[in-house]
Design brief:
- The chain is an alpha/beta fold.
- It has three domains: 3-69, Histidine-containing Protein, Chain: A (2-Layer Sandwich); 73-144, Histidine-containing Protein, Chain: A; 154-215, 2-Layer Sandwich (Histidine-containing Protein, Chain: A).
- Helices cover 34% and strands 28% of the residues.
- The chain has six helices and twelve strands.
- Strands 1, 2, 3 and 4 form a four-stranded mixed sheet that branches.
- The model has no long low-confidence stretch (mean pLDDT 91).
Length: 217
Amino acid sequence: MSDADVRRNVETELTWEPSVSSANAIGVGVQDGVTTLSGYVASYAEKWAAERAAERVSGVTAVVNNLDVRIPSSFLRTDEEIAAAAVNALRWNLSVPDGRVKVAVEAGWLTLDGDVDWQYQRDAAETAVRYLAGVKGVSNLIDIKSPVDQVVVSADIEAALRRSAEVDAQRIGVLVDGHAVTLTGTVRSYAERREAERAAWASPGVYSVDDRISIGV
């Protein structure tokens, strides 16, 4: 598939995705499968959705998200208002451990810090604040400190990969060193690579995942 084909497919996917309302304001460039998004959107949530949409397209090997967030005046909020809303959103989310995630906001950019036990809790914290009015971006600096006192077994992760309908487990190698996991091999799409990484993060006791999977045929 040529870069021109990939570009057209990404543009079509952005138009098709209902959560990307500013598709006409998004430029798409493709070089050897590396896809760059430029232009502007109306919210950080839309910027995030545009990146996910591009990742789903066959032939995309990586996504560079250079979209600028231009928040409409009716949705502008002060940093204090954003921080207060974020604290409440985290407090009301049952997947986020109470009191372990801290919030800082500067010029609309929200930073999450602290520690949790699981990757899904780290993801849940970011999801909880992603759609707040006035947010221009989110930096997720939350650490994972699992209470699970065991060495992660590669067989557990390999079994999770085999259970996934979206991943060809035979093409993925898993190396475990204590709480660190390294993934190698080749998959057919960027989306498949992300799914393999998600499966690795779901294993108890994983503190880090080094995703070295390449995208090919």
